[in-house]
Design a protein that fits this description.
heterodimer; A: about 180 residues; mainly alpha; B: mainly alpha; 5 helices
């Protein structure tokens, strides 16, 4: 009986520690703000949170749609095309390296969006009327993370174009070889 | 073993032993709560939560996203000829256009002005 109790206690303690070990709150540098600015934030922040809630939902849909498109380009176009080249014993380094670069950028995009979404959720949880400065700091942090997510999107678009150009060059070289 | 024997056995139990059934139920509930907490933590930290549009508040977004077409993609098996490459280029161009036609997460929607969080303009000194 005692063994069962101690085993249950150990399992529970392990799980509690696992759950409790989470990211600690990041200390933010306080933004110097005037009393007027704080009052303005306090007055308009409920409307701001409504806007942010809408943006949060829209961005979630955007993440799913864009994510599916970006994933499909990697797994259903770049990957199969590179595999076909390899199966035909064609070594096209540019296409392989561009596809690998795209995969890395896709991982970064996933991570950055997750960080942005977590920041946005944290912002929406803040009682902005009671904590206007903390709310503003959180909005600034969320904005920075959204900007990073956008940077990832720009990089992905650039690499999609780069792969397309590399395929064009390869197609031309193949035509020259055949003629 | 008769019913009397069982009752006698029960009377011989001491302390916590008498409540072991309740203890087992209590411990099971505690373990279940802990496992659910761990699952929720993993659900949130793995990024699955961000892709789950079935959450409350995302229903209207979910309805729009479900209208996506099925894309089979390019076959990894076959010859590499100018014709097959052209076929790939057409498929790729269409998909690339769909992926890049929206500047996702861009714009100025989170600026201080858009969110009405900008600092009020400093009062100008009266002209003398």
């Amino acid at each position: 009986m005692n063994r069962i109790l101690s085993l249950t206690f150990m399992i529970t303690a392990t799980l509690v520690v696992g759950v409790m070990v989470s990211g600690s709150a990041k200390a933010e540098d306080a933004v110097p703000m005037t009393e007027e600015h704080i009052a303005r934030i306090r007055n308009s922040c409920v409307d701001t949170q409504a806007i942010l809630t809408q943006l949060h939902a829209t961005d979630a849909g955007l993440r799913v749609d864009r994510g599916q498109l970006y994933e499909s380009i990697a797994t259903k176009l770049m990957g199969p095309f590179n595999s076909r080249l390899v199966l035909n014993r064609i070594n096209e380094e540019t296409l392989l390296s561009t596809a690998a670069e795209y995969e890395k950028q896709l991982q970064t995009f996933r991570l950055r969006y997750q960080q942005y979404e977590e920041a946005m959720s944290a912002t929406l949880r803040i009682n902005c009327v009671n904590q206007p400065v903390a709310f503003y700091d959180s909005v600034v942090d969320t904005r920075d993370k959204r900007r990073l997510t956008h940077d990832s999107v720009v990089e992905l678009h650039r690499t999609i174009q780069k792969y397309s150009t590399a395929v064009d060059v390869f197609a031309k070289s193949l035509q020259v070889d055949k003629s | 073993m008769t019913e009397e024997d069982l009752i006698a056995d029960a009377h011989r139990l001491k302390g916590w032993e008498r409540h072991r059934f309740l203890l087992m139920i209590g411990a099971s509930i505690v373990v279940a709560i802990m496992l659910v907490a761990v699952s929720m933590k993993l659900y949130n930290s793995s990024g699955a939560a961000q892709l789950d549009l079935s959450r409350p508040g995302y229903e209207h977004v979910s309805e729009k996203s479900l209208q996506s077409e099925v894309f089979k993609g390019y076959s990894a098996v076959g010859e590499v000829t100018p014709t097959t490459i052209k076929e790939f280029q057409a498929m790729y161009a269409k998909r690339a256009n769909q992926a890049t036609n929206i500047d996702a997460f861009g714009g100025d929607v989170m600026s201080d002005t858009a969110l009405s969080l900008d600092a009020p303009a400093a009062p100008t000194a009266p002209a003398q």
